[in-house]
């Protein structure tokens, strides 16, 4: 698996991915062999089924929403570049990255991490979380264990708490505001071993 | 001219077979070792150590080369859902009344989900395990392309030895071993039932497996032999490859349980069944769990019959972990003799990745590896405690095996190799999360 996998990845590709995502060379080659082993169709791209074959993801209540985050709208395949771009949201924020080029926001910024979470709720991608969407996501998380009534009141309360302009929806800026005290940088980051 | 050519070939073949018989087959029959394998393994260990040092030196010189990185990509924290979400909510601004839900709860699921996309506990167990350093087999060469001239020469020499000397030798041995088994057991099958027949049958089996083990240059270390499975018991072991059977049967006789196969395997199975009572099932019978259990129970009840050998994982795992034990074998009753088998991956990957290789190409890979080196631990016999159900007992045995073999103890079902995960696991997660929102009712 490993030998063929890394030879398919050209040095130029690695350099570009490095620049775009901030992953190191060895992280990229390792994640490439992971990508390769998930790619059961062996066509250089992953489908939704390829993700669903990971048992731990299949039992994740939000598994389908997370998988969805890898696929641009209307597409059902993701290549290695796209795969890495999504994973890059979960890179820890390093100190030396903070004062880099201020014009380009890195994928792993606090804002982008929050946006990733926001989009899990925003089912129709209209940049607003409506009560209906919140209810649907809550239902995914709790299954059949909580009554409609109870869930409804949870959704109402959550929106009330977050909504500042009275449109009964949560916009991204309202979302940021509610979560301003949460240590997003740490909670939405995955530590790499190498 | 032609005739002499044939004569020479025949002569060579005769000498070859005589040498094999004298130096390998006969010693194998009586279970003595002439020490060739030991010397070979010692030389091998030295060579691999040298290669490792070379590779490390090479890596220091060329920092550009990615260092070989064993054991995982990311660090996963194993806090429970409860702890992690509690931790998330701590920073939430307002005190909560009524439902305990915060928008940041998704961070937990999100991180968990992305973590397992990068690296998960289950699917990686169904592919070859990673090595700490290159073992000079081309197939495991991940990141080392060219390191030094000397290393390349050693590698080339290795290819020559493995393919031109070891492979023909090993194939011949395997053929001799298997034909010995088929012919021997068929002949013994003609004898009337008696203790003499059992004795000869055992001898033929063990000889065959010893020859086959030499055909793989197997070096097996058995630990705690006093716990060897006894008649009327069930031996359960973790499963890495079909070779497990050869490994275990080198040190004792077992009754095999399994499905009737066609082709070559079928011939061997039928021959074996003639000389001693193995338990082979037809495919249709296998589906009927009660019939299977009944036949096994009858076998175990007869204290004169050989211990049954079962691999309760039901599928091959890559030598790093033990997966769920199917409860069937633990419902039969009788004494369970757990056995842990751990291969040394440095000399060759024993894991059979059946999705990728068929039996023949797998055996070819085995026969062109350096050697099969493994440790076998016999664990103290275990019995079901009063009031303990089969599932719990199965887990207890599994943990004991994992602990002894230095393997990761997983609750996941090895059947996930082919099937999707059960919906009920997801429901469990949802239930757990629900109780964090509304509290236990």
UniProtKB/TrEMBL annotation, chain A:
- What InterPro entries does its record include? Calcineurin_B_homologous, EF-hand-dom_pair, EF_Hand_1_Ca_BS, EF_hand_dom
Instruction: Please classify the protein's predominant subcellular localization into one broad category.
Output: membrane
GO CC term (a single one)? nucleus
Keyword Repeat in the entry? The reply is: yes
Domain called EF-hand: residue spans = 26-61, 109-144, 150-185
A Gene Ontology biological process noted in the UniProt record is: protein transport
Where does the record say this protein resides?
Cell membrane; Cytoplasm; Nucleus
Q: Output one GO MF annotation.
A: calcium ion binding
Q: Which UniProt keywords apply?
A: Calcium, Cell membrane, Cytoplasm, Lipoprotein, Membrane, Metal-binding, Myristate, Nucleus, Phosphoprotein, Protein transport, Repeat, Transport
Q: What Pfam families does this protein map onto?
A: EF-hand_7
**PANTHER family, per the entry:** EG:114D9.1 PROTEIN-RELATED
Q: Which family is annotated?
A: Belongs to the calcineurin regulatory subunit family. CHP subfamily.
Report the protein name in the record.
EF-hand domain-containing protein
Record organism: Hemibagrus wyckioides
Recite the lineage of the species.
Eukaryota, Metazoa, Chordata, Craniata, Vertebrata
TrEMBL record, chain B:
Q: Which InterPro entries match?
A: LPCAT1-like, Plipid/glycerol_acylTrfase
**Could you tell me the membrane topology recorded for this protein?**
Multi-pass membrane protein
Q: Indicate where this protein resides in the cell.
A: Endoplasmic reticulum membrane
Could you cite one Gene Ontology molecular function of this protein? glycerol-3-phosphate O-acyltransferase activity
- Pathway connected to this protein: Glycerolipid metabolism; triacylglycerol biosynthesis; Lipid metabolism; Phospholipid metabolism; CDP-diacylglycerol biosynthesis; CDP-diacylglycerol from sn-glycerol 3-phosphate: step 1/3
Where is it predominantly found?
endoplasmic reticulum
Q: Which GO terms describe its cellular component?
A: endoplasmic reticulum membrane
Q: Which family does it belong to?
A: Belongs to the 1-acyl-sn-glycerol-3-phosphate acyltransferase family.
The protein here is known as Phospholipid/glycerol acyltransferase domain-containing protein
Q: Which organism is it from?
A: Hemibagrus wyckioides
């Amino acid at each position: 698996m490993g030998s063929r996998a890394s030879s398919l990845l050209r040095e130029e590709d690695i350099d570009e991915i490095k620049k775009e995502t901030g992953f190191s060379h060895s992280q990229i080659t390792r994640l490439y062999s992971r990508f390769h082993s998930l790619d059961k169709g062996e066509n250089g791209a992953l489908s939704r089924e390829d993700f669903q074959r990971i048992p731990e993801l299949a039992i994740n209540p939000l598994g389908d929403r997370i998988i969805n985050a890898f696929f641009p709208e209307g597409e059902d395949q993701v290549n290695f570049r796209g795969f890495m771009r999504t994973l890059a949201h979960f890179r820890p924020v390093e100190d030396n990255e903070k004062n880099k080029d201020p014009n380009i926001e890195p994928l792993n910024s606090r804002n982008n991490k929050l946006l990733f979470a926001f989009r899990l709720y925003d089912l129709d991608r209209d940049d607003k979380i409506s009560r209906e969407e919140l209810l649907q996501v809550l239902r995914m998380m709790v299954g059949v264990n909580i009554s409609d009534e109870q869930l409804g009141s949870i959704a109402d309360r959550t929106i009330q708490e977050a909504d500042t302009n009275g449109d009964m929806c949560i916009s991204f800026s309202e979302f940021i505001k509610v979560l301003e005290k949460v240590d997003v940088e740490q909670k939405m980051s995955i530590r790499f071993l190498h | 001219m032609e005739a002499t050519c044939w004569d020479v070939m025949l002569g060579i073949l005769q000498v070859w077979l005589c040498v094999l018989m004298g130096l390998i087959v006969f010693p194998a029959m009586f279970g003595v070792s002439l020490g060739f394998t030991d010397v070979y393994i010692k030389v091998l260990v030295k060579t691999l150590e040298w290669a490792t040092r070379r590779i490390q030196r090479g890596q220091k010189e060329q920092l550009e080369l990615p260092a070989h990185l064993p054991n995982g990509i990311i660090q996963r924290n194993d806090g429970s859902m409860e702890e992690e979400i509690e931790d998330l909510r701590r920073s939430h601004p307002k005190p909560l009344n009524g439902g305990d839900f915060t928008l940041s709860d998704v961070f937990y699921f999100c991180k968990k989900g992305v973590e397992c996309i990068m690296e998960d506990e289950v699917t990686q167990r169904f592919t070859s395990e990673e090595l700490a350093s290159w073992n000079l087999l081309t197939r495991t060469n991940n990141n080392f392309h060219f390191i030094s001239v000397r290393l390349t020469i050693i590698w080339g020499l290795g290819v020559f030895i493995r393919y031109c000397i070891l492979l023909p030798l090993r194939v011949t041995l395997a053929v001799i071993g298997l034909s010995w088994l088929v012919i021997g057991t068929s002949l013994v099958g003609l004898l009337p039932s008696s203790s003499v027949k059992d004795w000869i049958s055992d001898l033929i089996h063990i000889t065959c497996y010893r020859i086959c083990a030499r055909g793989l240059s197997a070096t097996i270390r058995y630990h705690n032999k006093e716990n060897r499975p006894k008649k009327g018991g069930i031996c359960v072991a973790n499963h890495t490859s079909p070779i497990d059977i050869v490994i275990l049967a080198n040190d004792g006789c077992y009754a095999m349980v399994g499905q009737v196969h066609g082709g070559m395997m079928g011939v061997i199975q039928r021959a074996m069944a003639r000389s001693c009572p193995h338990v082979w099932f037809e495919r249709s019978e296998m589906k009927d769990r009660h019939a299977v259990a009944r036949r096994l129970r009858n076998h175990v009840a007869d204290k004169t019959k050989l211990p049954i050998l079962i691999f309760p994982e039901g599928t091959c795992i890559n030598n790093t972990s033990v997966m769920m034990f199917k409860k069937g074998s633990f419902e039969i009753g009788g004494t369970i003799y757990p056995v842990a088998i751990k291969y040394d991956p440095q000399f060759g990957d024993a894991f059979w990745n059946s999705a990728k290789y068929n039996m023949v190409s797998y055996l070819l890979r085995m026969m062109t590896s350096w050697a099969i080196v493994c440790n076998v631990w016999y664990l103290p016999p275990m019995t079901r405690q009063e009031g303990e159900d089969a599932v719990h007992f199965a887990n207890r045995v599994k943990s004991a095996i994992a602990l002894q073999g230095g393997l990761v103890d997983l609750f996941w079902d090895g059947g996930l190799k082919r099937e999707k995960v059960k919906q009920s696991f997801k429901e469990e997660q949802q239930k757990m999360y629900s109780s964090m929102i509304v509290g236990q009712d």
